[in-house]
Design brief:
The protein is α/β, with parallel strands linked by helices. The chain folds into 2 domains: 3-151; 166-379, Rossmann fold, CATH 3.40.50. 42% of the residues lie in helices and 14% in strands. Helix 8 links the parallel strand 2 and strand 3 (215-225). The termini are far apart.
Length: 381
C-alpha cells in the first residue's frame, strides 16, 4: 500500500454516515478534476497545469479508494452488524445497500487494497501517466476490477476420475444413517464454521459422534474447522468425551488470501484440521517428509493457482495429500459436507470411492459439472 493511501486513510471519518458522504464527495471531486483535464488537454504549453490537476486528482482518488476500503472493512468485520439495510441521514446519500451490490463492491475494494491492487494502480498512474506525459484519465474502479478478475469464480471444469464420486441432496444426518457402523475407511470433511452456524455446540453434537461411529477400527478422520478459539474448544470438548480415537490438531495455512485487517488482533490465515486415528490405524503412507509436517502450507484456491468454485473451498493438493497418506485404492471415503465436491473428486482421481452430500441444489449442480454423480449412496453400499 502506498504511503499516500496510508496517509489519506488515517484522515478518514470514523462513522458510517460521514464515511458514506466522504465517498460521494471524493468521487465528485474526482469528476471535477477529470473535467478540468478534458478542458485543458488541447491547450498549448499546459503541461504544468495538467500535472498539477493530475496530482490533485490522484490525491482525491486515493481518498475515495481508502474510503471505499474502510466501508468494506467495517462491513467485513461486522462493525455495523444490526444496522438498517439503508443508512445515512441525508436522503440524497442514503443509498448504500448493505445487502446488495454496494456492500459487495466495498468489501471487494477493501480486499483489493489489502492485496496490493490499489497500490499497484496508484503507482502505475503516478509513474506512467506523469513521467511519460500521457494524461489519459484513470478508470475510477480499476483496482477493484483488477482484483475481481483475479478472484472471479471459475466455470466448473470436469475432473477425470477413475471411480465416479457420488453426491446426493440431503442433510448430513440422513446421509450418515445410510452407512453401517465401522464401514468406511476415511472421514474427510469441511463442515460449516461458527460464523455460519448460530448454535455451534448443538450442531457439533448432532453429527460428529455419528460420523465417527461409521469409521473402521483401522480408519482415520480429517475434519477442517475454523481457527476461532471457541470453535476449536467445542470440537475438542466433544472429541474428548470419547476414547476410541487419538486426537491431534494440524493446521492448514495459506498466504495468498489474508482477509480483513483487524486493529487489535492478528489476521487469520490458517484453519485447524482435527486429525483422528486409532491404535489399529496403519502407518501413514507419506514418503515425502515435507508432507508430514503438522502445518500444511498450501495456497488457497483464488482463481489464479487453483480453480475456485466456492468461498470456503479447499485446495485439491491438500485433499489428495491426506487421501494418499491414509487410504489405499478402492477404500471408501465420505464427506457429509461435500460442497462442490473437492474431496470426493480427489478420492475418485486416486481410485477411491467417495460418497458425499450437501443441502444446496446450486452447489450440487457445480459438483456434478465438475464430475460427481448425483445419486443416493444407499444404491451402492
Amino acid at each position: 500500500m502506498s504511503k499516500d493511501i496510508v496517509r489519506k486513510k488515517k484522515q478518514l471519518p470514523s462513522t458510517i454516515d460521514k464515511l458514506e458522504q466522504y465517498v460521494v464527495f471524493s468521487k465528485a471531486r474526482h469528476k471535477v478534476h477529470l473535467a478540468k483535464l478534458a478542458a485543458i488537454k488541447d491547450i498549448p504549453d499546459a503541461k504544468g497545469i495538467q500535472e498539477e490537476v493530475f496530482r490533485n486528482m490522484l490525491d482525491d482518488l486515493a481518498d475515495a479508494w481508502a474510503a471505499h476500503a474502510r466501508l468494506g472493512e467495517m462491513i467485513e468485520t461486522d462493525i455495523i452488524k444490526g444496522r438498517p439495510q439503508k443508512f445515512g441521514n441525508d436522503s440524497k446519500l442514503s443509498t448504500f445497500d448493505l445487502s446488495g451490490d454496494d456492500s459487495r463492491f466495498a468489501r471487494g475494494f477493501y480486499h483489493a487494497l489489502q492485496e496490493g491492487f490499489c497500490d499497484k494502480a496508484y503507482k502505475r498512474l503516478s509513474a506512467e501517466e506523469l513521467n511519460t506525459r500521457r494524461f489519459k484519465p484513470p478508470k475510477y474502479y480499476e483496482p477493484y476490477n483488477d482484483w475481481l478478475t483475479s478472484h472471479k469464480t471459475s466455470k466448473p471444469k470436469e475432473i477425470k476420475t477413475k471411480i465416479k464420486p457420488i453426491i446426493e441432496l440431503t442433510d448430513c444426518i440422513d446421509f450418515l444413517d445410510q452407512f453401517s457402523d465401522g464401514s468406511i475407511d476415511l472421514l474427510l470433511t469441511d463442515p460449516p464454521y461458527m460464523t455460519d452456524i448460530p448454535d455451534l455446540e448443538n450442531f457439533v453434537s448432532s453429527w460428529l459422534s455419528l460420523a465417527l461411529s461409521k469409521i473402521k477400527d483401522t480408519g482415520r478422520a480429517y475434519i477442517f474447522i475454523g481457527s476461532y478459539p471457541k470453535e476449536i474448544y467445542l470440537y475438542l470438548t466433544e472429541l474428548f468425551s470419547q476414547d476410541r480415537f487419538l486426537i491431534d490438531v494440524l493446521s492448514w495455512t495459506y498466504r495468498n488470501t489474508l482477509g480483513p485487517s483487524p486493529v487489535k488482533d492478528y489476521k487469520r490465515n490458517w484453519q485447524a484440521i482435527l486429525y483422528l486415528r486409532t491404535e489399529e490405524s496403519p502407518n501413514l503412507n507419506c514418503p515425502k517428509m515435507t508432507e508430514q509436517f503438522s502445518v500444511q502450507d498450501i495456497s488457497a484456491p483464488d482463481g489464479r493457482r487453483y480453480e475456485r468454485y466456492s468461498e470456503w473451498q479447499k485446495p485439491d493438493e491438500i485433499a489428495e495429500r491426506f487421501i494418499r497418506h491414509s487410504t489405499k485404492e478402492e477404500d471408501i471415503i465420505i464427506d457429509p459436507f461435500a460442497g462442490t465436491g473437492t474431496f470426493l473428486l480427489a478420492a475418485g482421481k486416486l481410485n477411491r470411492q467417495g460418497y458425499g452430500c450437501d443441502t444446496s441444489k446450486e452447489i450440487i449442480k457445480i459438483a456434478i459439472k465438475r464430475g460427481c454423480k448425483q445419486e443416493s449412496a444407499s444404491n451402492y453400499i
